[in-house]
Specification:
The complex is a heterodimer of chains A (349) and B (144). With 349 residues, chain A is mostly beta strands. Chain A has two domains: 3-105, no CATH class; 122-343, Beta Barrel (Thrombin, subunit H), CATH 2.40.10.10. Chain A contains three helices and 22 strands. In chain A, the strands form five sheets. In chain A, strands 17-18-19-22-21-20 form a six-stranded antiparallel barrel. The longest helix of chain A has 14 residues, at 42-55. The radius of gyration of chain A is 26 Å and the shape is elongated. Chain B is mainly beta and 144 residues long. Helix content of chain B is 0%, strand content 47%. Chain B contains no helices and twelve strands. In chain B, the strands form three sheets. In chain B, strands 2, 5, 6, 10, 11 and 12 form a six-stranded mixed beta sheet that branches. Classes of the chains: A mainly beta (349), B mainly beta (144). The interface between A and B is large, with 65 and 43 residues. Strand 7 of chain A pairs antiparallel with strand 8 of chain B.
Chain lengths: 349, 144
């Protein structure tokens, strides 16, 4: 059990903290010379803790206040040294002995950014919003010198055909400045090779939107969550993965591991079980030709993951996720090769 | 935050979207209606309803451009006799829909049982939650 487990913590109201019964490996209190537990009565130190929590955390730049039962001292966390001096001065004025107080510098505690939050610069795998719908951004691309992002064709106002769909990130209600506008979404056609009778088809459920001026995007970067392993459901953004390039196969190996990151189920992983399959889209008269099926025994896709980037174990971009089964254990993606065959050559890193 | 002595404590930052309802307190009532009896080969009409029982608008998330719903018919031993969606593949787009106070959304389908027996029916509404919204089970007895 770490030192933190013996701390009673109070943080400024602007910070979000939840108490939970779990261990942590991050020590907050310094390993310092211990005050003899009997130097002050614990009840007295707790009264000082109350004082410092009430008055000390009102000082700008303070992070938290705690009572460390193992050293019988009050701990105050501050963002930088200048604040430490203020805290010590305040403690002296309140009658808190210096020997009963530990002031240490620490990182401020912030809301964790998730795949559903505003992310700047924009990267693959984060939430995008249009109309009354949510999807995931696929990947950034440059097409003819135009900074763009690719998402699913059905993540536009009308699947197939360009209607100038306007996108927001993460929600229009959160950031009213649109990030981009749909510029490419080839129409679905009946008379193409491999299209089932009575269906309209394409080889990729993909569209392209041009970024608006002033919108930052990071070419070749897709979201990385804080999960140590796939399929945990974590949506907390820890950074980004740099794509190694584009994988331009349209047939993938059966059993090959594929990853995806999207706003609903985060980083998930499964194995290719079918390659170059023609897939009927439930509830529509659309079929997608030469698609890749990925499966797992646990959920790997959910509503809102449409458009997510799919990538190989070597971080090569493999395609765009567009659908799944009802239990979320099977996802379908359009290979990047098909996307480029329909939209045109794309620079993806 | 000031718990008992020796209580394990750690700092955890909240995650998740803004639309996560507190467990068990959703003002949206999701129900299923079906006849108590059916016959082999005859359609059993099933109606799912999602009702905003509160006096304020409620925003909810649904799978699909047209809202996707599922119905499960299970035998007495729990095995699935029929599932509306089966292995169908649907686009993973998420729809944001606000239900006005007292507004009800309704979905209908029919199940044609193949064997007599006692079954249980449940409606399912997938969204972006790890567990989809589910109706209570209702019993249907199917006779030859």
């Amino acid at each position: 059990m770490s030192r933190l487990n013996a701390l009673r913590l109070v943080v400024p109201a602007a910070l979000v903290v939840v108490a939970a019964c779990q261990d942590t490996t991050t020590p907050l209190a310094p390993v310092a010379a211990r005050v003899t537990p009997n130097a002050y009565a614990p009840q007295q130190v707790q009264r000082w803790f109350d004082l410092m929590a009430r008055e000390g955390l009102a000082l700008p730049g303070t992070v938290l206040a705690g009572y460390d039962e193992t050293t019988n001292r009050v701990v105050v966390g501050v963002e930088h040294a200048a604040v430490a001096a203020s805290v010590r001065g305040l403690a002296a004025r309140l009658g808190v002995p210096a020997a009963a107080l530990v002031v240490r510098e620490m990182e401020p505690i912030r809301f964790a950014t998730t795949l559903r939050d505003r992310v700047d610069p924009r990267i693959g795998g984060i939430q995008i919003h249009f109309g009354n719908f949510l999807c995931s951004m696929g990947f950034n691309a440059v097409d003819g010198g135009q900074a763009s992002f690719v998402t699913a064709s059905h993540c536009t106002n009308k699947q197939g055909g360009v209607e100038g769909t306007v996108y927001y990130q993460p929600l229009q209600s959160v950031d009213g400045v649109s990030i981009g506008t749909e510029v490419e979404d080839p129409v679905y056609r009946r008379n193409i090779a491999g299209c089932p009778r009575g269906k309209k088809c394409r080889h990729s459920d993909a569209s392209r939107a041009a970024y608006n001026p002033g919108i930052n995007s990071a070419l070749g970067e897709i979201a990385q969550t804080d999960a140590a392993s796939p399929n945990t459901g974590s949506l907390v953004l820890s950074g980004s993965i740099t794509l190694s390039g584009g994988d331009l196969r349209d047939h993938f190996g059966i059993g090959e591991t594929m990853n995806k990151v999207g706003r609903t189920t985060g980083w998930t992983q499964g194995q290719v079980t079918m390659t170059c399959a023609t897939v009927n889209v439930s509830g529509t008269n659309i079929s997608q030709i030469c698609q890749t099926i990925v499966e797992n025994s646990v959920q790997i896709v959910g509503g809102g993951d449409s458009g997510s980037p799919v990538y190989t174990s070597s971080n090569a971009l493999a395609g765009i996720l567009w659908g799944g089964n009802s239990s979320g254990t099977l996802l379908v993606f359009s290979p990047l090769k098909n996307v480029q065959d329909e939209i045109g050559p794309l620079q993806v890193k | 935050m000031r718990g008992g002595h020796g209580a394990a404590l750690s700092v955890v930052l909240l995650i998740g979207g803004p639309h996560v309802p507190a467990a068990g307190v959703s003002p949206l009532e999701f129900t299923i209606s079906a006849p108590a009896r059916g016959r082999v080969g005859a359609s059993v009409s099933i109606v799912l309803r999602l009702h905003n029982a509160s006096d304020r608008p409620i925003e909810a998330h649904f799978l699909g451009r047209t809202i996707v719903f599922d119905i499960v018919a299970a035998r007495e031993d729990g095995s699935v006799a029929w599932r509306r969606l089966g292995a169908k593949v649907a686009p993973s787009i998420l729809q944001i829909r606000t239900l006005a106070p007292d507004e009800t959304l309704e979905w209908r389908d029919a199940w044609r049982p193949r064997e007599p027996g006692r079954y249980r029916l449940q409606g399912v509404l997938p969204s972006d939650e790890p567990d989809p919204r589910r109706t209570p089970w209702v019993d249907v007895t199917v006779t030859p």
